[in-house]
Please model this.
Amino acid sequence: MPPAPKTSLTLMARIAASADDASVWADFVATYGIHVVSWCRRYGLNDPDAHDLSQDVLLRFWREASRFQYDPARRFRAYLRRITEAALHDWQAGLAIGVQGQGGTRVLKFLEALPAREDLITRLEQAFDQELFERAKVEVQARVEPRTWAAFELLAVQGLSGQEVSDKVGLSVNQTYVARNRVQRMLRETVDQLELSLLQP
Model:
């Protein structure tokens, strides 16, 4: 039996349900903050500028998530992208009104670069996807036989050959590939279900 997930809901759902919980904020910053700060540094911002921008993005992200209203017609990924773009736009607009301090002009030019904005959004989407995937792994592993899960991990994760996996788990070579395909399908379906049901009342 796989270990129980750290929480019964994804992090974004915890934010909406417990926005005043300091532990939720700490988990949120630990999950997403590293992506924002590293993105800022990657594009040449000094530490003060990088932390200013990252804090603004994270705070907007946090506030918007705490007010999230579920819309079954929209994927959560689109919502994630929208609030990130809004945070960057507001930060850029604030600089455009009156750039002050050393390095401000460089930050403004940086924010005007579309590839840079897209890179941050991609990083945050990947962090969100990883969170959903880890939860899906726990759910799927609990639903399949140990040999089926082992065949999936050995083939898809560790890259062993079908014969090597067959020897290790006691399935035929064909059965190992069937097991891998079944688990991959279940993982895709579970991730989709988690995303679609996120924060659904």
Observations:
- Residues 1-131 form one domain.
- The two ends are 29 Å apart (CA to CA).
- Confidence is low (pLDDT under 50) at residues 1-7.
- The chain is about 75% helix and 0% strand.
